[in-house]
TrEMBL record:
Gene Ontology MF terms in the entry: dihydrolipoyllysine-residue acetyltransferase activity; hydrolase activity
InterPro entries: AB_hydrolase_1, AB_hydrolase_fold, AB_hydrolase_sf
Coiled coil region boundaries: none
Keyword Transferase part of the UniProt annotation: yes
Alphabetically ordered keywords of this record: Acyltransferase, Hydrolase, Transferase
Enzyme Commission number, as recorded: 2.3.1.12
Positions of the AB hydrolase-1 domain: 17-246
GO (cellular component) term, any one: membrane
Native organism taxonomy: Bacteria, Bacillati, Actinomycetota, Thermoleophilia, Solirubrobacterales
UniProt protein name: Dihydrolipoyllysine-residue acetyltransferase component of acetoin cleaving system
Superkingdom to which the source organism belongs: Bacteria
Pfam family, one: Abhydrolase_6
Keyword Hydrolase: yes
Length: 264
């Protein structure tokens, strides 16, 4: 793919932990969780290629989850990191699994992980995104109204009222402006996760009780510990940051990694 540098923030101390956002998101979505995680983890939050402040993939490249993972792996190389704990939300969870397949993960924690459907999904119209793009200049003013904010965010979170106005604006603007959105969405929906036998690290799959976007699969293609984030929507970081942090820390705990090594 060539050299690929993605935008990231890094803070904290401890074992390295990579946090990956979902489709249409960006790295700041993890901010509510940071105060609970950074005392115990060297935390790296990235923008996927084509999202946030990261450049798009090279022209003609399909933004499949494995291509996005390759872009993130190049950033890990640049940081001098071979293997890291990885936690991803939605599409980010799928990218985390691809990093595990590539031998770059110490553990994987997926939250509302995409791609675990049985086959490709039908193409999806982008009505809401097109509306958001058209209204982008007015979004800061519109989202100051509680009713508008609730309508705009209810598909992703269970409690829109817990999101500060400034954060809601940032989330909506990121969704509207991501140049890699359509490429990533089309390639996400046209595929499903395969190669579960190549995931040889501890995996935790967290499912969100009020997820309106991704259903919990009946069976996983790899061994995993499963848990439920109660009273949370698909993007749960603002719904319950303490519960999310608890899952992230447990999923990246060293005893789990040692147990995985013993099984290998």
């Amino acid at each position: 793919m060539g050299e690929m540098s993605v935008a990231y923030d890094r803070s904290g101390t401890g074992p390295p932990l990579l946090l990956i956002h979902g489709l249409g998101g960006e790295r700041h979505i993890w901010e509510p969780v940071l105060e609970h995680v950074t005392p115990e983890r060297d935390t790296i939050r990235v923008d996927l290629p084509g999202f946030g402040d990261s450049p798009v993939l090279p022209k003609g490249t399909k933004a499949t989850p494995w291509a996005l993972a390759a872009g993130i792996a190049e950033q890990l190389d640049e940081l001098g990191l071979d293997r890291v704990h990885v936690c991803g939300n939605s599409l980010g969870g799928w990218v985390a699994l691809e990093l595990a397949k590539a031998g770059r993960a110490l553990s994987v924690t997926g939250i509302g992980t995409a791609g675990l459907w049985r086959g490709p999904l039908a193409p999806k119209p982008y009505l809401m995104r097109n509306v958001s793009r058209a209204l982008r200049p007015a979004l800061p003013a519109l989202l100051r109204a509680g009713g508008v904010r609730r309508f705009a965010l209810l598909g992703s979170v269970a409690h829109p009222e817990r999101i500060p106005v400034e954060a809601a604006v940032r989330i909506a603007v990121a969704y509207a402006r991501s140049p890699g959105f359509v490429n990533a969405s089309n390639n996400m929906r046209a595929n499903h996760f395969t190669g579960g036998e190549q995931v040889q690290v501890p995996v935790t799959m967290a499912w969100c009780e009020h997820d309106r976007l991704i259903a919990r699969p009946r069976k996983l293609p790899f061994p995993a510990r499963e848990t439920v984030l109660e009273d949370c929507g698909h993007v749960p970081m603002y719904d319950d940051p303490v519960a999310v942090a608890r899952v992230v820390l447990a999923g990246s705990a060293e005893p789990a990694v040692r147990a995985s090594t013993a099984r290998a």
